[in-house]
Design a protein that fits this description.
Length: 226
């Protein structure tokens, strides 16, 4: 089955039709860079140990995006920001919190990093700041954060997506909507937005995206002096 967006090019890069050799070289180069980053992160952690400040230093490791690397016949990043592009590592070591190993399945966003750092440093979080602190998720056996939206927004010029545990909803500037059921279709190959049995799910995702957009555009504090 052909992917829904398999024939589209990323407008922000020069996607070309790679042959097998070019694709192999691109993947090799990508993994080489991962290894290099891993090496230098290790150097940083070793330095923290050498300075005897590792036990008082929060370490956060993440990335702004992933890469297709040939998945769906595409390269780079962009529309529609499926998991290959938008699901990235987020590793946190926060001394003073109960140690937790493994992974947390809760959906979080990059905008959650700043309020996490502020709360950990005992700095008041501005009420208009987007994102929610991740500290409630960092404690072993912690109940989590009941107010967390349970979704992630990815957006760029002309489109927005909402990712929940079960669905990815995408809407374009034209009004065209897409819906992918990640439980039955984790590779996001089948758009189910037009299937009657998904009508209520489509409406719910549309409404959830609207609520989140309204919530994050709440009034900002006044900064003018007149």
């Amino acid at each position: 089955r052909e992917p829904v967006f398999g024939d589209e090019r990323n407008p922000d890069s020069e996607d070309a039709a790679f042959g097998d050799d070019e694709l192999r070289a691109a993947i090799h180069g990508y993994y080489a860079m991962v290894s290099e980053v891993d090496h230098h992160v290790g150097r940083i952690l070793d330095r923290l140990d050498a300075l005897a400040i590792a036990d008082e230093t929060m370490v956060i490791f993440t990335s702004d995006h992933g890469e297709w690397l040939g998945k769906y016949g595409r390269y780079g990043k962009g529309h529609p920001a499926d998991d290959a592009v938008s699901r990235v590592p987020l590793v946190v070591r926060a001394p003073g919190t109960a140690p937790q190993t493994g992974t947390v399945g809760t959906i979080v966003e990059a905008v959650d990093v700043l309020p996490t750092i502020l709360e950990y440093a005992a700095i008041q979080i501005p009420p208009a700041l987007q994102g929610r602190s991740l500290l409630p998720l960092l404690h072993e056996d912690a109940p989590g954060d009941p107010h967390r939206p349970g979704s992630a927004i990815t957006e760029h010029r002309g489109w927005k997506t909402l990712r929940t545990d079960q669905f990815r909803y995408l809407i374009e500037e034209s009004g065209r909507e897409y819906l992918f059921d990640l439980e039955s279709d984790p590779d996001e190959m089948v758009d189910v937005s037009g299937q009657p049995e998904y009508a209520s799910a489509l409406a719910a995702q549309r409404h959830a995206l609207l609520r989140r957009l309204i919530a994050r555009e709440r009034p900002r504090p006044r900064t003018w002096t007149y």
